[in-house]
Amino acid sequence: MSAGGGGLTPEVAIAVIGVLGVGAQWIAWRLQMPAIVLMLAAGLAVGPGLEWLVPARDIGPLVEPMVAIAVAIILFEGGLTLNLHGLRDAATGVRRLVILGAPLGWLFSAMALHYVAGLGWAAASVFGGIMIVTGPTVIAPLLRQARLSRRPSVLLLWEAIVNDPIGALAAVLAFQVVTVSAAGGEMWSALVPLGLRFAVSGAIGWTAGWLVVQAFRRALVPEYMKVPVLFVAVLATFVGTDLIAHESGLLAVTLMGIVVANSDLPSFTELRRFKEHATILLVSGVFILLAASMDLGTLELLDWRAAAFLVVVILIVRPATVLLSLLGSGLPRNERLLVALTGPRGVVLVAVAGLFATKLVDLGIEDGARVVPLAFALVAATVVLHGFTLAPLARALGLAGTDAPGLVIVGGSRFATALGNACKDLEIPVMVTDRNYTRLRGAREAGLPTYYGDILSEATEHGLDLVRYGVVLAATENDAYNTLVATDLAPEFGRENVFQISRAQEQSRRHALPSTLGAQPLGKGMSYLELSRLMTEGWEVKVTRLTEEFTLDDWRGRNPEAFLLGRVDGSGLRLLADGAEFKAVPGVRLLAMVPPEREAAATGGH
């Protein structure tokens, strides 16, 4: 376990980083809090706190290249989420946040660093460029947790991902100016070649993405090798471009990801999901690694001016940057306010800040030593603040879904309309979708929200705002389509939140679909035809409220033929599979299929 000087061996250190990072993410999920807060605390505890993990000692010179490669893959995965079809009415806002917001943010941040934090102009200009970055690795989990409306969510996500490489390039540009000025050289003689190298780097990223797409589309790469080939292509593009212009590799891999994302590859969904899993591991590892690399002496450089700097950045710099950029954009005021008051920073900011802090110190600029603690303080402050205030702020501005996640019913039928009406009476958002317009007639006449189209189509993905919905029921007459819907949407909604009506009993095992496909069956496990028959016979979806006097056993005693479909409690709607166990405390409301002769027994009210 020890490595000469009493530290950890590299393999043990990497294992510790992995356990702490993924463990922090899992605990944060259980506690419904921002994961990056726990990762920061864990890294500081085992690093500068207890000195169990000291990356420079335990891993050595591999720390910097490991962080660089991890950040490159994180940005590539971010580029994979940027499908141009998803912009729609948010395109103007995104362009303004990138074209106007990036330089304004750079200017205002540099001014705050100089006049408030007390850094010299050299360090302030470099770190100010890095502060353009708003952190996609932090924004994405916060958006999932807050369930924002589609347009502000798109604005925040695109700004974070696109501005990540721009922030790194701004830092490179500023550092180049500082280096040339320190050497007494001509500024333009250095900037023009630098700009040309960046242009070449962008072209390399686009070309690499195009080549990957062509190779995959023409079946030049077998299916089982696509993910390895993609990984190797990303690494080669990043390293090769960095040889042309340092830190320009981040721009190249981001462009590469955008090209792949907009190529309509049949295997794109599988590629992106695998990359998302890899990104979770990399984000965890990088943040633990960087936090553990801090030392107490560096943290002591934070003073009252650092605290004042944080206040100015959060309350003045960020709002001023966004509001000026979106002035005259036509976006509603509340959406502009939400974006202006949301600017968390994450892993990329800390990683790039750490790299340039070392370079500034090597140039003899002592202020460079304060860049890393300021970066960590900014990340911690913004993540904690936005992690706990984004959802309440979005609700206050009318830009978030209700507290109770709603239900999407795929397939219009009498049963779907009855279940939708019951949810509507409980004030639970519900939407009925179908590819056949006629089948939605009953839901429309009942006043339920409907969507005519295929829930799996790309147009639906970019045109239907699903932020209010957290539960899916596939209930069409087509068993294979139900299975496809459940299998496709399970990773997005969570498998515990996706149900389907049971497939018709197969006469032969050779006709049965694998149990690994689809989702858990709803209620008693009845098929579409069986549910339709019950509706024809007069069965209804009823709501019953449990009390101290009327328990679940009482309900079952009075309704021996009825069967449960779901329950509603303080956490919202939960559909139930046959035999599912749950805590039937007073106040829980039951959704059940009740036969006509038992209607009078379903007492307890709504």
TrEMBL record:
* Cytoplasm among keywords: no
Main localization category: membrane
Would you tell me the protein name for this molecule? Cation:proton antiporter
Q: How does it sit in the membrane?
A: Multi-pass membrane protein
InterPro entries in the record, alphabetically? Cation/H_exchanger_TM, Na+/solute_symporter_sf, NAD(P)-bd_dom_sf, RCK_N
Please verify whether the record's keywords include Membrane. Answer: yes
Protein keywords: Antiport, Cell membrane, Ion transport, Membrane, Transmembrane, Transmembrane helix, Transport
TM region(s), chain numbering: 12-29, 36-54, 66-85, 97-116, 122-143, 155-178, 190-213, 225-244, 280-298, 304-326, 338-358, 370-391
Gene3D superfamilies per record: 1.20.1530.20, NAD(P)-binding Rossmann-like Domain (3.40.50.720)
| Localization annotation | Cell membrane
Please list the residue ranges annotated as the RCK N-terminal domain.
408-519
- Which Pfam family, giving just one, matches this sequence? Na_H_Exchanger
Q: Which residues form the Cation/H+ exchanger transmembrane domain?
A: 27-395
